[in-house]
Design brief:
The complex is a heterodimer. By secondary structure, chain A is of the alpha/beta class. Helices cover 34% and strands 24% of the residues of chain A. A six-stranded mixed beta sheet of chain A has the order 5-6-7-3-8-9, with helices on both faces. By secondary structure, chain B is an alpha+beta fold. The chains are: A alpha/beta, B alpha+beta.
Chain lengths: 254, 675
């Protein structure tokens, strides 16, 4: 595991602009994610969060600006970077005909180092059956499998794209407890986009808010709250120009 | 490699049901005989089914391996692993090809087991496997699988992305279709035989060669699709299109460049096969083939006094085979090239009066498309053209193309020769149609049709001595310069009245072809038949007057004997007589005085009179023409290590000047572009 802090941020964007044809979805985004931090990117639907994730994963290039993932350009060094990065997509994308055990074995052939035992242990903890095809699992179970697979190679950086979207309370807690209890202790940097403001409030140490493709707020979470005397939800509502519930932000029901 | 195999294995695992399904389905052809299908058909049905199943599997896999996964977001699973794009692409393609090939093979197994190849007879071999693996079949099969998978991938990507690039694809498809028609089709017609027989040696590769650029384009397109498009379907579509069209564009550009290069060949780089000339001997039209342009029929209109030349418009394949070439008007001012256009006949009319010939396309009004049986003749001043086909004869005004007179021809006749008697009056001689069963009951008769520009027409059927042998082709009827007399080959050579067909004299008895020539003064020269016993080995010439009275009979010093050619008349009463002795023996060409029978000159070895084209009745040479054209084939007569292509030599018998005007060594002048 790399050092928790270092000269090179885990994630760095400088003047990043993302376009689909003539439509600009992210414009002039600049931020740096310190190593070892849990960084939450918040934004309304269509704010450009998922597009940003695709650029971070080297699945499409930036139109303008620079992106560095662990100090390297993800568009050019995607293959090398993906050995050090774990990804949990918004929609679980594993082949539906494969069971969790087969998926773990398959990923084991793709990664130079792979801890199949740890993956199996996490799946057991999430109570995911190993012998059922991925496509027949519940959404929460599929998310849990994705999370377990993303951690199988002990990544230095974990990218999560709204990992709790559509999950029930128990599943959400499981995901975030995994993040809190395991990764933070190991110094893994976590960069997540989420709607779950209350849950992330207890986990993230940094937040950024993306509104209409532009970064409107970024900083250490506690410092922001102290500075404004507001909760994260209130801060979001004030800078994103709407109440969290109107923006499609999921309220946590206890 | 292990990662590539892992990706491929996952693709196969997803579609594993295809394997047992194909094997089970392979038993279906074996039960067909129970439903009344012939047992002999079963192997054919089995192998056809295998090919179809392989193609279907290729379509299924090709349409889902990239486009579907990208649309469903599943491609991201692979792209978020440490997998190079090449591994993702390679694994998916490997699986697709393996699936298609394995499906076809598994389907074929029951049939191959039940019907060993050795039991089927023929020349296919004894082993199904060896037959499949040998020769171009396997390579062609591989290319077809790649093509099918690639097309399915292209179609699925196009369909799922629904991006505006679809419009560009359609535009490019239209452009590529046009370019293929313009540049690939001629190469297919003319150059493909060269590739087949000279470069590749065997014709079976032609299909592979044609499909290869398409398959390669789709393969390259999918490489770019994965490398650049990655998980973004719109971007993938754009990348795929660019990659594919880049390869197709390059292929078409190469083909177009080659085609332009072929078309830029001059008359000094072709081996000349046939020549027609104008009456004065200034203009000739030659056709031949170039060394690197396959069977493309280069055609040049050459001003033999200056060497300037004009390449003819692109040939029309079906007419090229027929052999229509340029007709010249007797006054030397016009040339006309029959072509097919807009479903009918047309002419490219060359106005030769100016320094730069002017070409006009003249559609002949309501004329049927020309066939190999159509005959054309151009009037002495090019004021009209006479076109005769099986059902009618027509005069068309030039340059309007308007039909000015028509005569109907009853069924069962085809034209042998057409000729203008004077400006505005034309005549055609018809022989019984010799197609199929009709040839077996060929009639001993001919028909003559007269047609005038004022619409007057007449037709007369006359008996002849015996049915004309269809194998004698175009030489069965020979009219004189003004069409008043004809020679017919009907159980000998007979002189007849050109208008009525009434016999005037019987010149030679016997069968087969008998060469003959009308001299400018009306005398007739024919190859004689020896009367003496034992017959002399020397060829003989008989000379007759206008009425068929024999004037002279003399032997020619041409040994060993061969096939005789008579003409042209290079000076009054002096005729070139050629003796052809086959491809390996030397030829002789003598100039013989028809009054004395003396040989007055002997042409250089290898020189022989040029010959023209079927279907064309150019104006007969005027009596004062001293310019004649000969072809030179230096390789004939000996086994020549570097046999040179045929050339055309222009000889002016009045001045003795001779020069090469077409073929290697020709002094060519400016290449003219028609106005």
């Amino acid at each position: 595991m790399s050092a928790q802090t270092g000269a090179v941020p885990a994630l760095e964007m400088d003047g990043l602009t993302i376009r689909y044809g003539r439509t600009t979805v992210v414009e002039g985004l600049s931020l740096a994610v310190p190593r070892g931090s849990v960084y939450a990117l918040l934004g309304r639907n269509g704010a450009g969060k998922s597009s940003l994730l695709r650029v971070l994963l080297g699945q499409r290039p930036a139109a303008i600006g620079r992106v560095l993932l662990l100090g390297e350009d993800p568009w050019k060094r995607r293959t090398r970077l993906m050995a050090r990065v774990g990804v949990v997509p918004e929609e679980p994308d594993a082949p539906p005909e494969m069971t969790a055990a087969q998926l773990s074995a398959f990923c084991g052939r793709l990664h130079a180092r792979w801890d199949g035992g740890a993956v199996a242990e996490r799946l057991r903890r999430f109570e995911v059956p190993l012998d059922r095809p991925f496509g027949s699992l519940s959404k929460g179970q599929r998310g849990a499998v994705s999370l377990a697979l993303s951690l199988g190679h002990a990544p230095e950086l974990l990218l999560l794209d709204d990992p709790t979207l559509g999950l029930d309370v128990v599943a959400r807690d499981a995901v975030f407890q995994e993040v809190i209890g395991d990764l933070a202790d190991r110094g893994t940097t976590v960069f997540t986009t989420t709607h779950d403001l209350r849950a992330i409030e207890g986990i993230a140490d940094h937040v950024a808010i993306l509104h209409s493709g532009r970064l409107v707020l970024a900083g250490a979470l506690e410092a922001l709250k102290a500075e404004r005397g507001l909760s994260l939800e209130q801060i979001f509502a004030s800078v994103a120009g709407t109440r969290a519930s109107d923006a499609g932000i999921t309220e946590v029901r206890s | 490699m292990s990662r590539l195999l892992a990706v491929a294995a996952r693709e196969l695992r997803e579609r594993w049901l295809l394997f047992p399904g194909a094997l089970v389905a392979g038993f279906l052809p074996l039960v067909l005989p129970a439903f009344g299908v012939s047992r002999e058909l079963t192997p054919t049905v089995g192998m056809t089914g295998a090919a179809l199943l392989g193609a279907a599997a290729a379509v299924v896999v090709g349409s889902s391996m990239l486009a579907r996964d990208a649309a469903n977001g599943r491609l991201g699973f692979l792209f978020s692993r440490p997998l190079p794009w090449g591994t993702i692409w390679g694994g998916k393609w490997l699986a697709a090809i393996a699936l298609a090939a394995a499906s076809a093979f598994l389907y074929a197994i029951p049939c191959m087991a039940a019907y060993p190849l050795s039991s089927l007879g023929g020349h296919h071999g004894t082993s199904w496997l060896r037959t499949m693996l040998d020769g171009p079949g396997m390579v062609t099969g591989f290319v077809v699988i790649v093509l099918t998978v690639g097309l399915a991938n292209f179609g699925a990507t196009l369909f799922r992305s629904r991006s505006p690039w679809l419009a560009l694809d359609l535009v490019l498809l239209l452009a590529a279709t046009w370019a293929t028609w313009r540049y690939i089709a001629p190469l297919w017609r003319y150059a493909a035989p060269l590739w087949r027989h000279v470069i590749l040696g065997r014709g079976q590769w032609t299909l592979t060669l044609v499909l290869l650029p398409l398959a390669l384009g789709l393969l390259v397109g999918s490489v770019v699709q994965v490398a650049v498009g990655r998980t973004d379907l719109h971007r993938a579509h754009r990348a795929l299109s660019l990659g594919f069209w880049a390869v197709i564009g390059c292929t078409l550009a190469v083909a177009a460049s080659y085609w332009q290069w072929v078309r830029s060949t001059g008359p000094d780089a072709v081996s000349v096969h046939v020549v027609t000339r104008d009456a004065a001997g200034r203009w000739i039209y030659v056709e031949g083939t170039g060394q690197h342009s396959g069977w493309y029929p280069h055609g040049f209109l050459i001003d033999t006094t200056t060497g300037r030349y004009l390449a003819r418009p692109e040939p029309v394949e079906e007419l090229q085979r027929i052999g229509f070439r340029m007709l010249f008007s007797a006054d030397g001012r016009f040339g006309a090239l029959p072509v097919a256009a807009r479903g009918g006949a047309a002419l490219h009319l060359f106005d030769l009066r100016e320094a730069r010939p002017r070409v006009t396309e003249v559609a002949l009004e309501s004329s049927p498309p020309p066939t190999w049986k159509t005959r054309f003749a151009l009037s002495p001043k090019a004021a009209s053209v006479f076109v005769v086909h099986e059902s009618g004869a027509s005069l068309f005004a030039l340059p309007s193309g308007r039909r000015i007179a028509t005569a109907t021809i009853p069924p069962g006749w085809r034209p042998a020769v057409a000729r203008f008697l004077a400006e505005g009056a034309a005549r055609a001689w018809l022989v019984p149609s010799a197609d199929g069963a009709a040839a077996l009951r060929a009639r001993a008769e001919m028909r003559v049709v007269d047609l005038a520009a004022d619409g007057a027409s007449s037709g007369t059927t006359f008996p002849i001595a015996a049915a004309i042998d269809p194998r004698l082709g175009w030489n069965a009827v020979l009219p004189d310069a003004d069409g008043r007399r004809i020679l017919t080959l009907d159980a000998g050579l007979h002189l007849r009245d050109g208008a009525t067909g009434e016999p005037v004299a019987s010149l030679v008895e016997g069968t087969g072809a008998i060469p003959a020539l009308f001299l400018a003064d009306g005398r007739i020269v024919v190859e004689g038949r020896a009367d003496a016993q034992p017959p002399s080995a020397h060829p003989r010439l008989w000379v007759f007057d206008r009425d068929g009275t024999k004037l002279a009979d003399f032997e020619l010093p041409l040994l060993p004997p061969g096939s005789l050619g008579i003409g042209p008349e290079v000076a009054p009463g002096r005729v070139v007589v050629s003796c052809y002795r086959g491809w390996l023996l030397s030829e002789d060409a003598l100039v013989v005085d028809m009054a004395s029978g003396q040989v007055v000159d002997k042409l250089l070895p290898g020189l022989r009179p040029t010959f023209g084209f079927a279907g064309v009745s150019s104006a007969a040479l005027g009596p004062g023409s001293s310019v004649h054209f000969f072809s030179v084939d230096e390789g004939r007569g000996v086994i020549h290590p570097e046999r040179r292509p045929d050339r055309v030599v222009r000889i002016d018998f009045a001045t003795g000047e001779r020069k090469v005007v077409a073929g290697p060594g020709a002094v060519v002048g400016e290449r003219l572009s028609a106005r």
